[in-house]
Each structure stands twice: as C-alpha cells, then as structure tokens.
Amino acid sequence: MPVCGLSRSAEAMVSPAVDPLMADPAEPIRCRYCHGESGEVVLDLGQQPGCEQFPRPDDDGPDPRYPLRMWCCTGCGLAQLAEDPGLPETVLSVEPQAMRDQAERVLDRLAAEGWLHPGASAIEFGSPHGGSWLPRVLRRGLVAADGRADLVLDTYGMLHEPDQSEAMLRRAARLAPGGLLVFQLFSLGSVLRLGQWDELRHGHHGYWSLPALDEALARYGLGVHRAWNYPLAGGTLVVLANHNPKPDRETRMTIEAEYSAGVLDFATLRKLQERADADAARLRAWLTGRARTRRRVIGYGAASRAVPLLCHAGVDVSLLRAIADASPGKQGRRMPGTQIPVIPPEYLRSGQPADVLLLLPQLLDEVRRSVPEVEDRGGRWIRVDDVLAGRA
After folding, report:
1. Neighbours of 389 (CB within 10 A)
2. pTM of structure
C-alpha cells in the first residue's frame, strides 16, 4: 500500500546535530524524512514555552516561547514538528510504574513468540524519557551487542530525532540478518483517533502513522511484521519490523484502520486543531467554574504533555493552585510558561481537601494507592480526560 508516492531510493542525509528546519524560518519547510517541501500545517498551537524547561522559583520569567506547529508531508506521510528551537531535553521525571509494567508486558509477549533467545545480541536506541528496556532484556539471557544485533530496540527514540531519515538508517544498519527491530511509539493513528493533540511539543520531531512507517521501512528492505496496541498513555503502539515481514490478520487490520482513520488525509488531520481549541476552552471553563464555587483544585503530574494543554488553555496559578509530582527534580520549580508551582505529593497527604486534577490519567490506580489521603480527607481524583469529555 503506497504512501503518497514515497520514493524508496536513498536520500541525502542532513546532520542530526542541527535541526534543518530552524535554519531560516522564511525558507520552505523540508520533511525530516524524505526532505520534500510539499505539505501542510495541520495543527498550530501558537507560541509555546519549552515543555521540559521547568524554571526555578527565583526565575520570574517571562519564559521564552517558540512556534509549535505540526506539519504533514505529502511525499511520505510523516506528521512532524514544523520547527524546533533545539532546547536541551533535561530529564527530571520519575519513571511511573505504568511504564515499567508496559516494558514487562511487551517483553513477555516477545519471549512467548520466540524472539528473545538466550545468547542472542541486543542493542537499544533510547530516548530522554528514560525507561530503558535493555537491562530487562539482558536479564532474560541476551547479550549487549557492539555491532549488528539480533534485537534492536527503540523506545520512543525516533520521536526525539530531528533527522528522521538518518535515524532510520542508523537503526536499520544495526539490525542483523534475521533480526527484529522493535519500536514503541505514539502512533499518529492513536493521536488522531483519541484527539491527543497535546502530544505535539518541542523536541518531539516525528509522528509516524503505521502505513507511513511501513513504507519508510521498505527503503531498507524491512517491513511491519506485527503491530500491537497497548492502552499506555491513552494509546501506544509497539511495532515489530524485520526483513521478511509476514503481517498477521491483526496487524493488517491495524494498518487498514489507520488508513481509514485518515492519517494520510490533511482535512482529517486538521480536526486536531478543532479538538485542541475545544479542549482548551473546556478545561478553562471547568477550572473557572471551580474557582467561582471556591472549590480548591490541585493538579497532579507535571508532565511535559501537560504544558501545551495548560498554556493553550491560558491556565495560570489563579485557576490551578499547584501541581504535585513525584519527581524530586521538578519539585520546587514551576510549570513552563506559568507561575504554577510544582509541589511534592506529600502536600496532598496533609493539606486541606481538594479536587485533584490528574493530568496523566493512566496513573489513576497508582496515585490513588500512593496518596489515599486525598479521598480520606474528602477530596476527589478527577482525570483530565473526563473534564475534556464533559464527564466531570
């Protein structure tokens, strides 16, 4: 199934150390994968602060802001960050239990299907999100590789690569004959289906749909062998690629479902803009209503994905008193683009009753166990997706 006429011939590479799209904003946008210039901006969140830049409390701002837009390429179908300021990816987060559980689920399934052979070689292309799978793989009897490997892991790594073609080439080059390349990624299909426009942020360069990724892999003699959907973060896709792909019925249906969802249709992709504007208005209205009734609201989860949501909604400390987070590196700082302080979860154990707006909905079970005092004191956990859906 061809994707927008992508040529499978090798393309000239752009140095990964320099974002080619930030050289001159007056120049046409060039695709991070096929380097074509034909495409369209499908989502524009205006000027946004760096989502990983949590200022210290003595930094009153204003925080620098940069354009935040998603551009989709006609040539290869890659949805991507239109321009990026090249901010450092400073990891301050604590890996949640949900991420650790996800890694084990995927590795258990790989083992059950015969892909984790003791003595086989493995390497990993990781990401600033952390959560390495390689130590877990080595504990299962595989060995770390210096050159080519039987198992090549990419856990959100491609997302952070400014030059997607060079990044794909490096991964394909490390795969041994008969080996398996495993991607964990936020599929454009899931982003579109679930309206996850807040996945767009600085430092996240490429948003592959499954059809576009399958076509891109073909340039290197690879293809999608399996595609597994998981509920992590609303919708996570694990893709298995190899040199002799034989997609099963479930994988073929997943590819076809993303086609049908409109991942290659600009008119459909532009609906992300409508969703972003509606979600921002709904969140602001909900918080404003709580402020009128003097019902205190504290956030939980100072994640990078919360930054575009709060900033697009114009939420400040008058509407959201603070955001609790388990990361010691974020505690005592403030959210980018706003004066909202980041506080330790211990505050929720001793403070006055409050509604807690959970900005990472998948952590509900985990945080309810870790901070039972919220409900013991008459507060409530309210998932942000319930607010955006009008269920709160």
Report:
1. 12
2. 0.88
Task: Tell me how far apart the alpha carbons of residues 387 and 43 are, in angstroms, rounded to a whole number.
Answer: 22
The CATH superfamily holding the domain 97-269 is Vaccinia Virus protein VP39 (3.40.50.150)
Domains of the chain: which residue ranges? 97-269, 273-388
Report the alpha-carbon angle 86-170-226, nearest 5.
105
Q: In this structure, what token pair is assigned to residue 165? A: 């073609």
CA–CA distance, 66 with 252 (Å, rounded to integer):
39
pLDDT in tens, 331-347: 999 999 999 999 999 99
| Residues 276-309 pLDDT 10s | 999 999 999 999 999 999 889 999 999 988 999 9
Nearest C-alpha neighbor of 110 from the set 156, 158, 155, 151: 151
d(C-alpha 1, C-alpha 255), whole Å: 10
Distance CA 233, CA 375 (A): 24
Structure tokens at 148: 């080519």
Give the 3-state secondary structure of 77-137: CCEEECCCCCCCCCCCCCCCHHHHHHHHHHHHHHHHCCCCCCCCEEEEECCCCCCCCHHHH
CATH topology of domain 273-388: Rossmann fold (3.40.50)
Determine contact, residues 151/115, Cβ cutoff 8 Å.
Answer: yes
Q: Are 215 and 77 in contact (CB under 8 A)?
A: yes
The two tokens of residue 34 are 């096929």
